[in-house]
Fold this protein.
Amino acid sequence: MFPTVSHFIEYAFGVQIPLPLNTFGLLVALAFVAGYWAFTEELRRKEILGLLHPIKRTVSVGKPASTNEILFNGVFGFLIGYKLVYAFFNYRLFVSDSQGVLLSSKGNLLGGLLFAAIFAYWDYKEKSKFKLSQPKQVEVTEHPYELTGHMIVWAAVWGLLGAKIFDNLEHWDSFVKDPIGSLLSFSGLTFYGGLICGGAAVLYIAKKNGIKPLHMLDVGGPGMMLAYSVGRIGCHLSGDGDWGIVNLHPKPFGWLPDWLWAYTYPNNVAMEGIPIPDCTGRFCSVLPLPVYPTPIYEVIVCFILFLILWRIRKQIKLPGMMFGIYLMMNGLERFFVELIRVNTRYHVAGLAFTQAELISSILFICGLLLVVFSIKNKEKHANY
């Protein structure tokens, strides 16, 4: 396993380069990049088809930097400098525990003040370049695809928040024991929490900018499937605890790699299992028994589902149908992987189920209803 990028570089090239980058975080960032690409492409396509339209805004130009803007940039610069300079002078500590350093109160005061001054002055000078003796109002045209960056930021913030909330609800016992640590930890994220909260944030931004909800949902379907596939690579490579149940069955095919059938996740970031002999450092645990590597199964299946969605998107004309199909695919995929995945099970009225099984079932039903709704409202959608 590769808990950090340094572990991967050492494995691939035999060179130890200490970098404060964890593999899971890097893959999550790449997942957002993949989603950004898919969202942008679909928004462009729908605008060309005349389904989405640019909007005109009136903006003020020529104003100098306001006091609030300078203060905001100064505070932001202080936070960057406070941590960055401290990390530079304590690089080994930062590499060994970047999360601990970032979430602690440790920092360099002089570095913070220096960067605060730089950021504040930079904002002042940039605004001064375009300052007019008499500020004026101008009309600008904003295309839907130009909102993608704004949407992705909102989806990231609210998605990560939702993922943490749902994860702590799912692991309530651990949360009660250490609520602060559970909330601040970078590990432990529930996909459906991110989907629900991140999706709601994107719909809010879309509605504010004149994009109808069904069109925005259709845009998001393929992109979210692709982003999920990429993000699951990080889960597998880092060993974040999102694996399956113990698998001691013999391989069904001789050509199938062992790690694709049953894996022990050595050096996993969840630090679960037994100690690895002669291993030093933080990530020195390995599972005593091999388990189903469910994250890699989801990488493969969800990428195939993305390709299907990307292929059929031009043939689907009814608003809402694409997202309905996405919900059904997503629900089925997650429901079946839960059958071999380690997770907290709830018991209600004699039924045992996981949080993901419950939500995936609801999403499948919602997707089916959305597809039926789209078909029944075909004539109405002709002018949508």
